[in-house]
Every structure is written in C-alpha cells, then in structure tokens.
Amino acid sequence: MKLRLLILTLFITTISFAQSKGTISGVITDKNSNNETLPFATVLVKGTKINTTTDINGKYTISIAPGSYTIQYSFVGYETKEVAVKVTEGAKLTLDQSLSSGGYTLKDVVVTATKNRQKETALLLEQKNAVEIKQSIGAQEMSRKGVSDVEAGLTKITGITKVESRGLFVRGLEDRYNNLQVNDLAVPSNSPFKKIIPLDLFPTDIVGYMDVFKTFNPNIYGDFAGATIDIHTSQPTTSFTKLSYGVGYTTNNNMSDFLLSSDADNTKSFFGFGGQERQLPSGFGKIPNGQINNNFESSWNVKKMKSPLNTSFGVTHADNFSIGKNSNTLKYILGVNFDNKYQIRKGADRFFAIGQGEYDNNLNRSQYKFLTQASALLGLEYKTDRLKLSTTSLFLKSTENQIQDQVGYTRNAKDNPNEIIRLNQYDESNFFTNQLKSEYKLTEEGNHLIKGGLSYTRTKYNQPDRKFINGVLLNEEEAETRYGSNHLIRQFLDVENNFHLSGFFEYQYLFGKNEDKKNKLSAGYNGYAEYMTTSYRFISGIPNGSQPANIVNINNIDSSIQNDIANNNLSFTESTNGEYKTKLDNRVDGVYANLLFHVGEKLEINTGLRAENTIRDLKYRLIFDPIGSAYRTNLTEKLDILPSLNIKYLVNENSNIRFAASRTITRPVLFETLPMTYISADGTSERGNENLKNSTNTNVDLKYEIFPTKNELFAVTLFGKHIQDPIERSFDNFGGGSGRQVAYYNNKTASIFGAEFEVIIELSRLSEQLEGLSFGANTSIMHTEAVADTNRGSYFDTFEKRQLQGASNWLVNADLKYAFEFNSEWKNTATLVYGVYGDRIYAVGIAGQDNEYEKAFHKLDFIWGQNINKKWDIKFSINNILNPNYRRVLGGDNKIPILESSLTLQEYKRGTGFSTSISYTF
Length: 922
Known about the structure:
About 5% of the residues lie in helices and about 55% in strands. By secondary structure, it is mainly β.
C-alpha cells in the first residue's frame, strides 16, 4: 500500500512539474535564401545549459520553467540574434526567426570561425566563401554516411579513395603525396611504412571536422602534391555525455575458423595492451655480438578457434562554463574509444621471376588478423572577447596479431608444391601528442591578431619477435621441418620517434574600408624538428650438428622446440648484420608571407611566398659493414622557395571561378629512405634508398562552382601537375636470381592532367514527391605520364614512358540520401554510398616484364541512421555489398614470353560486413 502511495505521489508531482513549465517553439529560416528553412541552427537560453538545434525542417522546441530569459539564435556564417522573452506557467510561445549571413563573413583564405563546423551546411558555406580550393567534411556528414573513422570519412570527398592497408589516394596519387596536420600543427606518422598516421585510427567521435586542401597556401608545409589534411579535434558548444556500443559481422571473417597466436589469447591482448612477452630477451644485450640465448617468453604455438564478432565502444563527455562577469567561457571534452575486429584474407599470392616468364613463387595465402584500436582525447578551451587558449592531448594505439600461412612452392621449386611458410607477427604502434594553441586580438576590433601553437609528440612502432616456421605440409596440421635455413627465424623491429616538436606563429593585419571584405596581410613561421632511431635484429634457430627431420604439429610446435633445446640439438643465435641500426635527424623551418586583396566587389586575390629549409642527417651502416664500425653519414640541406597564387572571381552570389598555381615539394615515406632490408621467409624483401631526393611539383588548378541553394553544389575543376624527380616503387634486378626485392627510385619527370566533377542536388527540385531525397556524386578523370631516368645506375625499367606509379586514371564516388520521419521524435536517414577507382600501377615493371597493376575495385555500402527523441542514435550498415575480388596482376604488355596461364599475382575477397551501433546522449 505504501509503495502504491509513493508511486502515485511521484506521478502527481511529475505531472504537476511538467504542467508548470512553458514551451517555446518556432521555425528558423535563411533570410538570404528566400526564407528557406535553416536546419541544424543553434537555439540557446543564455545563462543556462538549455539548448537545442533545429531539425531538418528548421523547427525547434524548448521546455523551460516560468521566468524571463534571453533566447539566442545562431548558425555558423550567419548573424546571431537575441530575443527577450517572458515565459508563464503552461504557456506555449511561438518565436520564428530569420537569420542573415550579411553580418558575418568567411571570405579569408584561412577561415577562423569554429562554431559548430561539424555541420554539412556550414562547411558547404565555408567552401563557397573561402578563396583557396578546399573541401571539408564534418561530424554530421560522417555520421549520416555511417562512417566510424576519419579515413572512411575522407573517401566521401571529391577525388579521394581508400586502398586497403595502403591509406588514402588523392587525385589518384598515393600516400606519399599527402601531408597531415592535427589542429593546424604538424605531427609525425606512427609507422615507418606510412607517410601519415593511418587515418582509420581516428574515430569520428573525437573529430569535429576535417579540411582537405587541394591547392597550396604558404601557411601550410611545402610537402604538398595530393592534399594536406587538417584534422580538427572536437570542441563542442554544448554540454553532453555520450555512450556508444557497436557490434559487427563480416562474411567469411567472423564466426569462421581462425588462427590466433597463443601470446594473444588473453584479456590484455584483447584490449590491445599485450605483447610484453615478445620483447627481445635482455641476454642479447643492446649491441649484437652473436650471442646465444634460449630464454624467450614468447610462444610459437597457435590457437585454432572461431572468430567472434567485431566490437566497439566509446564514452565522450563535454561541458562548458561561464567564468566572470564578461561571460568568458571554459570548455572541455574527454573521449575514450576502443574497437577490435577479426579479418581473414585467402587467395593466390605469387610473383614471376625477374626477367622470366615463370612463377618464382606460387603460393596460396591464408591470413588471419586480430586488430585493436584505442584512442583517448582530452581537450580544453578558454575564451574571452580577445583571447582564445586551447590545449589538446591525444593518444592513439593500435595492435595487429597476424598468423599467415603460405602453401605452394617458392624459388621456382615446382617439385616441392607443399612447402609451408608460417608467419607469426605482432605489430604495435603508439602515438601521443600534447598541443597548446593561442589566439589573441591585439586590438578590440580584431584588425591586428596574433596566433601560435606548440606540439610535442612521441611515437613508437615495433614488431617484436616476428617469427617464421618453414617446412613441408603433410596434412592440415602436421609438417616436416628441418632446422636451419628459413626455419625458426625471429626478427625484432623497433622504430622510435624520440621527440617531434612542431610549432607555428602568425601575425595577421586586416585593413580596408569595406567591413565585409577586409584585406588581410599575414606573416609567420611554422616548422618541426625530430630525432628517430631504428633497430632491426635477427635471431636464428641453429642446429647443433646434423639433425634429422621432425614431424611436428604446426599449431603446437613449442614442446618439440623446447625438447630439442633441452637436448642441446638446437639453440637461438643472433645473426644481425651491419644494417641493423639507423639514426635520423630531421628539421624543417618555414617562413612565409601572404596577402589577400579585394579588387572591387567580385575579385579576390591571395598571393604569397614560402621559404622552407630542410635539413636531413641520416647515420647508417650497410649490410657488409662491421656492427661496431663508424656510421656512414648522408647529410642533405636544401632551401625551397615556394610561391603560390589563389584567385577567386565572384560571378554572382551563387557561383565562383577560382584559379590556383603553386610550387611545392614531396618528401618520401620514412622507410623509402632507410638503407635497411626488410626480409620475409618467402624470398621477398623491401629496401629503402638512402639517396632518394625530394620531388619538386608545379601545380595548376582552375575551378567553376555553383551553389544553387545552401544544400546544393555543382563544380568542375581542371588541374595539372608537373613532378620533377618523382619517387616510384619498383624492383631490384638480381640478374635472374631467385627472390624479389621491392625498391624505391627517383625517376626523371611525371605529368598529370585531369578534371574533377562534383554535384550535390536536392531531388525535390525535380518533383515534390522526392522530398527528402538528395544525390551527391564526384568523379576524377586523369591522364598521367612518367618518364624514367635512364641514367640512374639501377635502371632496368621495361618502359621508358608509362603511367605514373600509384595513380589511377579515373575514380567515382556517389551517394543517394533519403531523410524522413516516422514522427517528430523519430528521424531517419538512409544513405547508399558507392565508390570505384580505376587500375593503377602498384610497382614499375623491369627486365622485360610489364608493370604490376591493382585492378579496379567497386564498393557499395548502405547506412540507415535513426535519431529517437534527440538522445538515441541507432545505426545499421551493410558494408561492401558487392564483395568483388581485390586483384593485383601482371600487365599483359610483356616484352618476354609468359609461360604461365594466369597473370594474377594476388587475389582475395574482403567479405560483406553487417554492423549495428547504438549511442545514448544525455
């Protein structure tokens, strides 16, 4: 009885409290677009934490206790309006507002407004008004398209595609032609094999928006050819806490037979914090000396299991406070995200002997990867009328446990078709950066402004105890093995960026009589310095005398190895060579000046100059150098003068013509320059080239764009590039010997000419029955030509002129979106996303063989997102619906006879992925 009375009392109290509140509702419209509704505008009750955003139809509703308030209406790029209102008990007030963009301009080259740039309409407005050719994507668009990480999000931008395990290609140009900044500050890569951090490590929950600069400006680094990507971590304007959880299933990947290293079969490894048992035993010392040591903690055993579902979870919390009488604000955000996934790749894995028409290796590969990714973000921002001070701490961690079996023959040994090579590999990368940024208006009106920032970053990448087993496969689990050769090889790779310090400082002066079109003069400095070391050590299982063959269970081989060690039949001996260690000092210093000038009402000219000095000091030894010998030194210093010009002509208020020209450089990926041979047991290897030079690029762009409405766009861009000393992937010629070594060279020149087309259209303009439907598409068409340097010492190229390595001749991205409501509290967005890229050269052919090509890959995804009561977000997605084969092939234009029936070198399916996620925001 008492319980019933308590429930009844609580119910009556709740109803009474609800009835005592009043409501304010209305519609916000765009005054400059014939009063079209303005979705995602912000409605804030000043002096409180009560706020909301308008829905897709520009509508809003706020419930609030009786009292007198000031309601603030705002949208990035538009004026802010404030309205005083008195709310009485139970009142239902209607307040419609019309906002204008006339009082706020974003027409400087670098747009400094950051208010809610996560929204699609705001970013499209910024793209329209900025002088340089750039595109942006925010959290809202990535959420709508079902994107969970930055890398996938950027593929929705014109001219960008993602190639599995090889990062982003911009305008057909691969990873080495891109550059990355985080919050306007330079950061290093966390992997020696990547030019920039793999962007799938950035979950969208910690990202506010991303800018992609396709034309050069002097205030960004000169290392620019494809694009400079600037990731801006989230700085939300409202208080919230968000909890999210997701699961995923991919056909032929999850709930399938799976192999996992026994080292990774524990809770710590499940969350990405294992691997300690794989470290090099201390008994080997810091300097290789042929030491014998058998005290390894890592196991050779492998667990056979069923791969579970992929999982993810995240927590984000943000808040803001008013401080002092002047309503200074303090904001903070804290986010933690984690995900793991299981990946299986099965298919052909082969290559031709150099200069011959027969396979050197002809293998079938079964690859099993367990991957984890974790991130943590802490951001603080303090803002007054004239000062903005922010700090960001970001941690990224990834691990990859891989078991790979290759079965077939190697080194043209066709009489041994059941050779097995098992790889047991663990990759771990850690990235941690602390950033501090400040901006201060020297004068109250902001005509004189200074800003600057500092970033300190440390990264570490390692492959501890990378192990190989080699033998003859007898059945599914048993193999015949013999000690020696490539059996029982252990490798330890460590790459550590001991420090990376970057910073910038800029002074801006705004001048001119027209308040809406201020001219701007800016001058500044940005640069970075870093010190890196690498270590690559080999340990070999050496038999003590002649030993018979062993029949072993390949998944449980540890007991056999330990017995032979105990019986003194086997020992592990260091076999490291002189290449094992390198030291690298890099320093880049750039000073620049930039002038934005308005000529009349329609013409804007932005011109500038950057002087960038590069110092690179590499210390290394070659493979035949004694380990204790003095380091060889490769010291290079070069000053590059890099001019740029951006012109924008306003045809009318809805369309622009843009022209850009610049001179830039391209620096190689770290590994491409390291004189270190990275070896695998299947006879393949990869070696950097310590003599690689930076490429020099001349870039020209011409663009015409129309913005029919705030949600629509049509654009055409013509572009061209001339590259001097392009860096390309090829092969070393072993004079017909067995094995294959990937190498990197500067060739003579390369030229690129192309066109980009982009359209975003609301289909309701065709028929009212298509209300809520929109279509977006972009395509790039290119012609490339590379000219080989016939005078280089390693010249064996089959073709002197050909397509540029790594460049596709065409690519297409498209999406169809349908936004609809079940009711006012249940909103839905369904999106179909398609992407495809054309064939591209993976590696340049030599000794009469054609180039190796990556074949076109078609990808179709479906995403259904639901928002319920503004608190629950539910997403369901189907990824890679078409599930085509990924294929790498030898081209058909060979100058030597080909004796094999298939030119396919590598082939596999990725599987179709089904995933769902749910998040709750309060």
